[in-house]
Design a protein that fits this description.
By secondary structure, the chain is an alpha/beta fold. The protein has helices at residues 27-38, 50-62, 77-87, 113-141, 154-157, 163-183, 202-205, 210-218, 228-239; strands at residues 18-22, 42-47, 67-71, 93-98, 145-150, 188-195, 250-253. Strands 3-2-1-4-5-6-7 form a seven-stranded parallel beta sheet, with helices on both faces.
Length: 260
Amino acid sequence: MIPIDFAGVVLPGLDGVTVAVTGGASGIGRASAVLAAQSGARVVAGDLNDDLLADLATEAKARELAIETVHLDVADTDNVEEFVATADARSDLYGLVSSAGISPDTPALDLSLAQWHQVIAVNLTGTFLVDQLAARAMVAHGRGGSIVNIGSAVGTTGSGSLTHYAATKGGVASLTRSLARELGPSNIRVNCVSPGGAVNTPLMWSRVSEEYVEQRVAGLPLQRIGEPADLAYCIGFLLSGLSTWITGQNIQVNGGSLML
């Protein structure tokens, strides 16, 4: 996988703290992990794909970035507990990027209950569980923190062949607002970043063709494909000391495909 270059960008407020990233071995999660580590954070990146985790570990070593890689299935409660415990091993967990997700295309009328439950378990229940356990650690420390959930534009617009996925992402946005209200008094900010348009990630390419992407990009106001770094900059901003009065927001990063 091609290393992501953030051209020396260092975000304030992340030096010396720990940031946990789920779905951290590829796409938006990986870019967020690299940017946080480049800004001085110790990063614990969890993912199901062990090969991509190994690739990230190799990149981190070559670039002298403090990224620890951990096998993680966010649908496995015990595994999530182990992941958060690893991230909080120094009692300094400050940031969380909840990026793990799946989006299998299935028309609603063909969708089995098992498929529905699988997507809910990963995208919504998994996000809640990681958020909950990370927030407990942050509250215990008493130093505040920042949680960034990854939503999707289809959580707002809906999508014909992604009913289950759209439902979970709408749920993630609502979860974000609810947690922001509850955790605000503990100085823990909770926000959501929702990709849209066309973002150059393995998840996107697993379900669409090059022709579809070309047509999609041609219809965007900015007329280019989004890159993981485009999302990571917004996520990093929300993690950092540049956004200390922002919480409960769902920020759309989509090249102009959805304007609210």
